[in-house]
Design a protein that fits this description.
The structure holds two protein chains of two kinds.
Chain A (H helix, E strand, L loop, with lengths): L1 E4 L2 E4 L8 H5 L5 E4 L2 E4 L9 H5 L5 E2 L5
Antiparallel strand pairs in A: 1-2, 2-5, 3-4
Chain B lengths: L3 E2 L2 E4 L3 H12 L4 E5 L13 E2 L2 H5 L9 E11 L5 E13 L1 H14 L3 E4 L1 E8 L4 E8 L5 E5 L2 E4 L7 H4 L11 E10 L7 E5 L9 E8 L2 E8 L9 H12 L4 E11 L8 E2 L2 E3 L15 H21 L4 H13 L1 H15 L4 H12 L5 E2 L2 E2 L1 H11 L3 H10 L2
Parallel strand pairs in B: 1-10, 2-3, 2-11, 3-7, 5-13, 11-18
Antiparallel strand pairs in B: 4-6, 5-6, 8-9, 9-10, 12-15, 12-16, 13-14, 14-15, 17-18, 19-20
Helix pairs in contact in B: 1-3, 1-6, 6-7, 8-10, 8-11
Classes of the chains: A alpha+beta, B alpha/beta.
Amino acid sequence: MKEAHSEIDIDRGKCIVCGACSAVCPGEALIIEGMTLRVYPERCRPCGQAALVCPTGALHCPGEE
Amino acid sequence: MLDENFEVVVIGAGPAGSRTAALTARAGLSTLLLEKRKKIGFPVRCAEGIGPREEVERFLDLDDDLISSTIDRFAVVSPGGRRFEAEKRGIGFIVDRELFDRRLADLAAEAGAEVRTSHQVTGLLRNDHRFTGVEVTDLGSGRSYTAGALVTAGADGVESISPRWAGLKGAYRPREVMSGAQYLIDGMETDDRKIEFHLGRRFAPGGYAWVFPKRPGTANVGVGVNPEMAGGLNAVDYLERFIKSRCPGAGRGRLVVGGTVVARGLPSLAAGGFIAVGEAANQNNPFSGGGIINALEGADLAAETAVEAIREGDVSARSLGRYTKKWKKSTGRANELFWHAARSFYAMEDDEMEKIIAKLKDTPGLITDTGVDPLRILRVLVSTRPGLVFRLVPALVKR
């Protein structure tokens, strides 16, 4: 179920498409489109903030501590 | 050339968007309401607790099927496990959020708004002076089109990007988005007229854990944590810990997760041809995370201003800026106080929080008819941390 976009990893089994990551991603690399989370890896800064707010631990992105 | 033209386009059919669309349509303005999800109100991303029923009925009639349970009591459990219980009839209710959102969208449609689901806004249109509408993709057919608008209202919730496109806000910092997780729990011991808030680092660092009863034996049991204080764990990890303590062995229904904006109010809610409403506009209460009544209130002010501005033929930032002023004079002012209170309160270590809760317990007038009085919370906070007063003075004297 793992999916890698350069270094952004989303576990689609855990992702519930809540949008918390999208709210903090400064580059608009994570966008909720309809009922899915679309990833635009080329826009990733990277800052790691999206992984920090993910409620389910589904997301790992570069810059994470 | 635009594919379509409306007087008002609203992005997002949650409470803020649907209410805005209902009011502009009712005022006779051609209104398009766009929702990216397939089904309005689904999936639910909410703990479903709201304030007093009469507060919501200022905006719409509530049929009984929208109300899961009425709340007459609440308990606050301190980090050390001490309980502070109080009774206040009808202090709030637990809403069926899916039905609630659908009801609000139906009201918009009945008022004449055109409602389109599975239609995603992908950008704002602009000319030299103002925003002039939206670019949309119909996710069903894949077709993209443009819809012009005199006023575009961004009500796209926590993940909202439209107010960012309009320059009203940037991306949130992690601490501005409470990370939440909740199970619908069956077969647990609850008082179906009582809500519970559990504080402290063990279950909810920087936030709180809750039990919101839906019906006898069944409740939304959840946690909201400040991601910057979560020590590498996520909201679901804390939820597991809370459930193990509060209702081990109970049955689990749907898992709800999501972020809640608990950021400070925005300096401006309007740009030329654009207004932001609801959670997208940081209108949630930053102390509780609650946002439904605030969203409805924000929508009323936004729609009223949009209607006036369009009738006057002036949708400039200055003209729509009247909405910002109205908001700051009403709920925005309380929210500023709540934001200060939240910033101090939730950052506390458990032992200090313990003392504050003991003091709050003996504070007369803390609970009002509409909820909690932020000034009383601040007063108690200042009494233990006198230094706070300097930070608070501007908030208390301003406006």
